[in-house]
Specification:
The complex is a heterodimer of chains A (401) and B (135). In chain A, strands 2-8-7-6-5-3-4 form a 7-stranded mixed beta sheet, sandwiched between helices. Chain A has a 3-stranded antiparallel beta sheet with strand order 9-10-12. Chain A has 15 helices and 12 strands. Chain A has 2 domains: 258 residues, Aspartate Aminotransferase, domain 2; 125 residues, Aspartate Aminotransferase, domain 1 (Alpha-Beta Complex), CATH 3.90.1150.10. Chain A has 401 residues and is α/β, with parallel strands linked by helices. Chain B is an alpha+beta fold and 135 residues long. Chain B has a 3-stranded antiparallel beta sheet with strand order 1-2-3. In chain B, helix 1 packs across helix 2, helix 2 crosses helix 5 and helix 4 packs across helix 5. Chain B is globular, with a radius of gyration of 15 Å. Classes of the chains: A alpha/beta (401), B alpha+beta (135). The interface between A and B is medium-sized, with 25 and 26 residues.
């Protein structure tokens, strides 16, 4: 039996998505910037995709920038925004550096981009701690705000443990604070979220949530790898990070990847239909898996928040085993999962997310994540529950007492 | 160096050789620690035999067992180490290098080479533990 439970890493391209993409490789191959028939055909497809994507988030089409994925989107958002402030800083006055507030459990795309800006001396960054459930407190974000704060970047759902962050709460107080800031001469604060793991299951109405900038990548919800977007509410100016032609209203140079963008739009449309039902179905399966594992195996702890968690992620630490060894044994049984152990990541340290949550390194090495998807069935879940306990017993038997 | 695990590593992960412990061992060693990820424990039973060539008495690894908490590479290197060391004289066993271990596994991914270093170190430490006990 083949069981794929690593949907938070990537998903296969949906057949409907692939069908929408196919014409743009051969018959409708035009460059959207060309004036001739083929070009206009591609332009129409690109514009249509932009409208569909905008509808998903209930924003204007001009507020969508297509990118190669979430990493590029985050780089464009953070660097683009800070560079805008950098340009307006008067060196002679030694005006204060812009300040970014983020969390210690963000994806590397955010953390490394912030570190880069720190190294350049263009920004100062506060990395907020999280509690043992991987939750950042909205009050802590609010308290971290300084007169020179210009950007708050908090992920919607953590990809390793599934904890849902208080996005609406943060969005609400950012809106409120921004009303009073002009009077004090302080710059407006922009709120960015990496919503990659939230798109399929959670509310993504950016106006309601108070989000100014949103990043995502398509391949976590059945679009292909290599396409994503950055949503930028109107009135926010970013210095583009990829120079060249005037595509995407001058905000991202390079010929648009029409086929993939059409695929991304189709995938979002598919996910929007029956979103709540699917979230409920996946959550029930996930709960069955988590309860089963906690019942059948001793020394297991569910990582992440018990309630405030995305429906598709079940993550654990298992005492007395190493994650990569568990993954290899699972693979022998046809099961694909992932681990935040140092070995599994090819890194020296185990998952920065688990460490930030206060999980001891020796336990973090034994972490295991299952992430469910639209093809996950109850049979698959029961199969995992039938083989995992024996694997843990076998590995624990190998370990010194 | 390899990009992924060799067939030999995977076979040993599935069916490790000499896994377990020796009761009242002559030499024992623990290397690595849980914080870093891998812990290996080696148990030695030392035997004496006469060399065929000159009848001189020599000490050799009569039995060796391991217990490992770690990744596939850590388990495979411990297992292959016990197979290499078994039956060897202590003088020869002390010369087992991490390179020899890697070669016997038909290679290891670059990020896993440290596992072979750990395994070679474990054997030396266990033999010294025996020699220390003897004195």
């Amino acid at each position: 039996m083949k069981v794929y439970l690593d949907n938070a890493a990537t998903t296969p391209v949906d057949p409907e998505v692939l069908a929408v993409m196919m014409p743009f490789f051969k018959e409708k191959f035009g460059n959207p910037s060309s004036v001739h028939y083929q070009g206009q055909e591609a332009k129409i497809a690109l514009d249509r995709a932009r409208v569909e994507v905008a509808d998903f988030f209930r924003v204007e089409p001009e507020e969508i920038i297509f990118t190669s994925g979430a990493t590029e989107s985050v780089n464009l958002a953070h660097k683009g925004l800070i560079e805008t402030f950098q340009k307006s800083r008067v060196p002679a006055c030694q005006a204060e550096k812009p300040h970014i507030v983020t969390t210690s459990i963000e994806h590397k795309a955010v953390l490394e981009t912030c570190r880069h800006l720190e190294k350049l001396g263009w920004a100062e960054v506060t990395y907020l701690p999280v509690d043992r459930f991987g939750l950042v407190r909205a009050e802590a974000v609010e308290r971290a705000i300084k007169p020179n704060t210009v950007l708050i970047s908090v992920m919607y759902v953590n990809n390793e443990v599934g904890t849902i962050q208080p996005i609406k709460k943060i969005g609400d107080f950012v809106k409120k604070i921004n009303l009073s800031r002009p009077a004090s001469g302080a710059p407006r604060i922009f709120f960015h979220t990496d919503a990659t793991q939230a798109i399929q299951y959670l509310n993504c109405d950016v106006s309601e949530l108070g989000i100014d900038l949103l990043s995502l990548t398509g391949h976590k919800f059945y679009a292909p790898k290599g396409v994503g977007l950055l949503l930028v509410k109107s009135g926010i100016s970013l210095v583009r990070q990829q120079d060249g032609g005037g595509q995407d209203h001058g905000r991202r140079a390079g010929t648009e990847n029409v086929a993939f963008i059409a695929g991304l739009a189709e995938a979002l449309k598919q996910r929007a239909a029956g979103k709540e039902q699917e979230a409920k179905r996946v959550k029930e399966l996930r709960d069955r898996l988590a309860e089963g594992i906690l019942k059948k195996i001793s020394g297991v702890v569910l990582t992440g928040h018990p309630e405030k968690r995305a429906p598709h992620i079940a993550s654990f630490t298992i005492r007395g085993v190493e994650g990569e060894a568990v993954l290899m044994y699972l693979a022998d049984e046809g099961i694909a999962a992932s681990s935040g152990s140092a070995c599994a990541a090819g890194d020296l340290n185990p998952s920065h997310v688990l460490l930030a949550m206060g999980v001891k390194p020796e336990l973090a090495h034994g972490s295991l994540r299952f992430s469910l998807g639209k093809k996950t069935t109850i049979r698959e879940i029961d199969y995992v529950l039938s083989v995992l306990p024996e694997i843990v017993v076998k590995l624990r038997k190998m370990a010194p007492k | 160096m390899t990009l992924t695990y060799t067939k030999k590593v995977l076979d040993l992960l599935r069916n490790p050789k000499n896994m377990g412990q020796i009761i009242k061992p002559d030499g024992v060693a623990v290397v690595g620690n849980r914080v870093c990820g891998d812990v290996m424990k080696l148990y030695l039973r030392i035997g004496r035999r006469r060399r065929a060539i000159d009848g001189k008495e020599e000490e050799y690894v009569k039995n060796i067992k391991f217990q490992t908490l770690g990744c596939p590479a850590a388990i495979a290197t411990s297992s292959i180490l016990t197979e290499i060391a078994k039956g060897k004289t202590l003088t020869r066993a002390l010369k087992i290098s991490n390179r020899e271990i890697v070669e016997e596994l038909d290679g290891l991914p670059r990020t896993k080479l440290h596992c072979s270093v750990l395994a070679a170190e474990a054997l030396k430490k266990a033999i010294r533990n025996y020699q220390g006990n003897e004195k």
